[in-house]
Amino acid sequence: MGCVEDVMEALISSPAILATGTETPAAPLGGQLVTAVADPRQLLADFALKLRDIRYRRGGRVPSTGFDCSGFVHYVFAHALGIDLPDNSASQFNAGIKVARDEMRTGDLVFFHIRGKRVSHVGIYLGEGRFIHSPSTGERVRVNRLDEQYWAHRFAGAKRLESLSS
Fold first, then answer.
1. What pLDDT is recorded for position 37?
2. How far, in Å, CA of 125 to CA of 30, rounded?
3. CA distance 133 to 142
4. Pairing of strands 61-62, 66-67
5. Considering Cα of 24, then 105, then 115, then 86, what sign does the dihedral take?
6. What pLDDT is stored for residue 77 in this prediction?
7. Domain extents in the chain
8. Which residues on neighbouring strands pair with residue 144, listed in sequence order?
9. pTM, to two decimals
10. Catalytic residues, which ones?
């Protein structure tokens, strides 16, 4: 199987990844079924990480053909948590609540100035200074560090969606 097929199989076979809310399937405990409440931020991060190595495609919105940065973020939020984000990075920047860099949490959106002064790139913060994104033509979805010189110099800020503000 190819990379896309592997990802699709993983998505189909993982109930926690397919969850659109905050509950995962019930788990047995001492002969009783207990519903485990999953952290939506962790569901988001786990889902995003399963999409590593999907190729970049300008305007791309699905794993089978590839993602651009905003398409990747849109897809992850829609499929991991059922949250519908705007379609481009500038609009996604306007969708959230500003977060100080030292207060960022897993699932926050991180934005960059790649072309001039306007926000033109977005990724998803994973914690510990790492973020996942679909960088550019010829690249694939990958994890980078915010303190890498290229990204640190272009960092525009972080936003948190109201639905993840608790």
1. 55
2. 37
3. 6
4. antiparallel
5. positive
6. 97
7. 3-19+39-164
8. 131
9. 0.79
10. 69, 121, 133
Q: Is 13 helix (H, G, I), strand (E, B) or coil?
A: helix
- Output the CA angle 20-86-104, nearest 5 degrees: 70
**DSSP for 84-149, written as a single string:** ---SSHHHHHHHSEEE-GGG--TT-EEEE-SSTTS--EEEEEEETTEEEE--STT-BSEEEETTSH
Per-residue pLDDT of the chain in tens (166 residues, 90 and over written 9):
444 444 444 443 343 433 333 333 444 444 444 445 579 999 999 999 999 999 999 999 999 999 999 999 999 999 999 999 999 999 999 998 999 999 999 999 999 999 888 999 999 999 999 999 999 999 999 999 999 999 999 999 999 998 887 7
Residue the block writes with tokens 């405990």: 29
What tokens were used for 145?
A: 């560090």
Task: Give the homologous superfamily in CATH for domain 3-19+39-164.
Answer: endopeptidase domain like (from Nostoc punctiforme) (3.90.1720.10)
